[in-house]
Amino acid sequence: MKMKQKKQIAAGILAGFFLVMVLCTVISRAAASLTVPLADTQNLKQGKLSMVFSGNGVVEAKEEKIISPEAGLRVAKVLQEGSQVKKGATLLEYDADYLQEEIEEKNAEIRKLELSLSQARIQGEAEISVPAAESAGKDLDLADAELSQAQAEYDQAYSEGEDQKSQAQADLDAAYAQAQEALDTAYAQATALEAEEKWEEAEALWQNAQAEYDTAIQNAQAEYDGVVSQADASISQARENLSSRESARTQAQNAYDTAAAQDAAAAENQKRDQEENSYQQQSIQVDIDLAKKELERLQQVSKAGGKILAEEDGVVKSTVAAGGITDESSSIVLGTGGYQVKGILTAEDLSRAEQGDTVKITLPGQGSAKEKTVTRILAGQSGSGEESTSQSQETSNAAGVFYADLEESTAVPGTQVTYEIEKQSDGSYEQILPLSAVREENGQTFCLIAEPVETVLGTEYEAKKVSVTVLEKDSSSAAVKSNLSEDDLVITGSSKEVSEGDKVRLSQ
Q1: Residue 269: its pLDDT value, please?
Q2: Do 210 and 280 have their domain in common?
Q3: Is the confidence at residue 4, as pLDDT, over 80?
Q4: Which of these three, 373, 407, 424, is where a domain ends?
Q5: CB atoms within 10 A of CB 24
Q6: CATH number of 481's domain
Q7: In terms of domains, do 358 and 239 share one?
Q8: Is 483 exposed, middle or buried (0-12, 13-18, 19+ CB in 10 A)?
Q9: Is the pLDDT of residue 100 over 70?
Q10: Domain residues for 454?
């Protein structure tokens, strides 16, 4: 009995254990349903990518002819932007009164310039003047003549003085000899008287002879000294005059050299002044020629009735407005040769687009898109100059443009359009994933798969990272290269953020 009770108790405990286990499993799964992210999964697919790219564009004429209005004139009338015209139609009309005033002012300007040129020519003529060196040269010639005269007078005075001194020396020597001879005679006579013992007579004769000798010598010496002094004085005076003339000649030479240098400097200055005046005349002549050309253009505008006419059929695009004054940047563009759409391509789209692609063009207010064919693709081109703010950002990223023909009745140049080009990839791919499955982190590209894991609670799923290489992608899918198998469940979306190692629940 007791054994039977024990078995019943053990069976009850075991049943209770299993009941608790079931309850825990139910509670655990209920809790997981609240905390574990619900993941959308998909297997790999095969096939081609469908590439769709779109952007903005503008309608423009196939050919454009730029017409530059005459600058500086007031516009009376001008056709509005986008106006379609026939050959011979008036594109722009100038203010007739303003045009006439400009012609009169241009005539007055030319007249003033011609007067300035005449004045410059007069000022450029060489001044009549006597060179300073000419007068200084005459003074130098006179100084040379006076120096030559002084040299001749000195030479003559020196020669005459030397002759006079030589004659005076000869006269002095003769006087000495004559006085000595008279003294010798007196001495002989005195000696004779002494022989006769006439001592007193001899003494008187000798003393008288001595006195006469001394007087003769003194007179001869005085006369000699006078002649020499007079000759030296004449020579000294002639030498002083010569020195004065040499100094005067040196001053005259210096004055001539200074005058010659001043004349050379004046001539060089006059040459530069004439060259400067010549340049001034040439500059004025250039202004005159330019003004005459401007006058001729104004007269041609007047002759044409002050109008610019269309040379062929087309549509107008203009930068001028009625009442405004034209300048060098003013222009009228006449679009001809039919219409086309110019679409902006990014660098990525430029590598995909090809001539002959079908492009869907949507024009404002015209409902469904029009299917056209891409006729040309140009790399390195920018969009239209007339862009909205959003288009301006797109144009800054532009790598090229495409062109597609458009009927003339569809829109007018300047109309903003949108486009869409859809095309299949060239080849088929073995592995294609939704873009939502492809992730990138720290420079690595990967996807997450839901990998089954067996636990005590049954089969659960855990996120696992698998590296992929993106080969090509379109707007919704990416062709990849990876180690994924056909059975792998690739996570394409989840109710919460999922990272590697997180547990997930499958939505299916």
Answers
A1: 87
A2: yes
A3: no
A4: 424
A5: 11
A6: 2.40.420.20
A7: no
A8: exposed
A9: yes
A10: 37-48+429-508
Q: Are residues 417 and 474 in the same domain?
A: no
Closest CA to 72 of 286, 291, 285, 283: 291
Contacts of 124 (CB under 8 A, 6+ apart): 273, 274, 277, 278, 280, 281
Phi and psi dihedrals of 305, rounded to 5?
A: 80, 15
Q: Rounded distance, CA 420 to CA 414, Å?
A: 19
- Answer with the residue of higher pLDDT: 385 or 503: 503
Phi-psi region of 88 (alpha: psi -120 to 50; beta: other; left: phi over 0): left
Total number of domains constituting the chain: 4
Contacts of 137 (CB under 8 A, 6+ apart): 256, 259
Q: Which residues are within 8 A (CB) of 228 and not within 5 positions of it... i.e. 6 or more apart?
A: 164, 165, 168
What lies within 8 Å, CB to CB, of 143 at 6+ separation is: 245, 248, 249, 251, 252, 253
In order, the DSSP letters of 269-330 are HHHHHHHHHHHHHHHHHHHHHHHHHHHHHHHHHHHTTTEEE-SSSEEEEES--TTPBP-TT-
- As to burial, measured by CB atoms within 10 angstroms (0-12 exposed, 13-18 middle, 19+ buried), residue 179 is buried
Indicate whether 388 and 434 sit together in one domain: no
Q: How far apart are CA 369 and CA 364, in angstroms?
A: 10
Residue 225 identity:
D
pLDDT of residue 386: 47
Q: Are strands 90-94 and 50-67 parallel, antiparallel or unpaired?
A: unpaired
Domain identity same for 282 and 393: no
pTM: 0.48
DSSP assignment, residue 477? E
**What mean pLDDT comes out for the span 193-220?**
89
What 3-state DSSP class applies to 59?
strand
Would you say 477 and 431 are in contact if contact means Cβ atoms under 8 Å apart?
A: no
